[in-house]
Amino acid sequence: MATLTLKNVKKTYAGEIDVIHGIDLEVVDGEFIVIVGPSGCGKSTLMRMVAGLESVTGGEICIDGIVVNALEPAERDIAMVFQNYALYPHMSVYDNMAYGLKIRKFSKAEIKQRVANAAIILELSHLLDRRPRQLSGGQRQRVAMGRAIVRDPKVFLFDEPLSNLDAKLRVQMRLEIQRLHQRLKTTSLYVTHDQVEAMTLAQRMVVMNKGIAEQVGTPMEVFDRPASIFVASFIGSPPMNLLPVQINEQRQVLDENGLALQIAPELVPTGLANRSVYMGMRPEHMRLHADGVPIFIEMVEVLGSEQLVHGRHADTPIVLRCPIDLTKSYPLELGETIQVGADGIHPLHWFDKQTGKRIDTTR
After folding, report:
1. Are 278 and 261 in contact (CB under 8 A)?
2. What is the per-residue pLDDT across 190-214, written as a single tens digit (0 to 9) for each?
3. How far separated are the first and last CA of the chain, in Å rounded?
4. How far apart are CA 319 and CA 310, in angstroms?
């Protein structure tokens, strides 16, 4: 196991295209960090720089306090699991897992022991003689992880390893990766665009946007106190509702058309007077038929025990997540206008309209 440190790490292509804008990150020994963000945000590029597959334009990458910028991938003592399983189709499961050890000149006895141990951990012992084509997608991904485990590396790197699996298998594999980390406690860096994966797997997560780390924190820190509009709109399913509003001197909330919304002044921080901001409300922290914002109902998605109510206030979409039984006495009809508001338990969120950053002020 090891520590991993990124100090102002930058990446520039062709001397002028900046894709990573100075990332700082301290990963402690045995920690599981998830880097999450949309396609093109730079998360895989950052992972490849840690692995040594991309050069570092600026800054330092340190493993156990040693700068590894100039080291080849094989010299960094890391193991990587890719989105593509990259298994040798003509080799058995055993040989696929053993291959990296063979070229490193490990003894046959050591290879056999390491593969056997990894197979037990991943429940592959009964599949060691099979070829990859005889395995399911989940089994192939476990073989790819087994090939990394036998290395006993200082750092595990996972680059969107579950993207090729169906929804049910992804849930199963997330549980297996969690159990694997609890057992091995190896320092791990995991890249994904799926915020559900990030929330369920991470001890801490790095939310990236256009080559910048927008926020670093535990999943609940990021969910409860998003640092920016981007984080608020990316983390959460459905994402946070963000309504552009104006606050007057009496802490009254007005929408962009000057309509006064039924938001209690005590919910509005004193420092927001005479400011244009975004007001944020999580879909699961809202109630139907409550003082707040009038919405025009456009669609209702029934999901069994709960439903998603999709509406619109002026040009801004609003979504609520609420249990079915709470609305039985209030049958919803498409095209009607109702009031929706905060549940009174969770605070509202406020973001600066110019910078997009979170506003933390006292009430």
Report:
1. no
2. 999 999 999 999 999 999 999 999 9
3. 45
4. 5
| Whole-angstrom distance, CA of residue 167 vs CA of residue 236 | 18
What confidence tens digit (pLDDT) does each residue in 8-46 have?
Answer: 999 999 878 899 999 999 999 999 999 999 999 999 999
Domains of the chain, CATH where assigned:
4-229 (3.40.50.300), 238-352 (2.40.50.140)
Distance CA 220, CA 226 (A): 10
- The answer to whether the beta carbons of residues 211 and 20 sit under 8 Å apart is yes
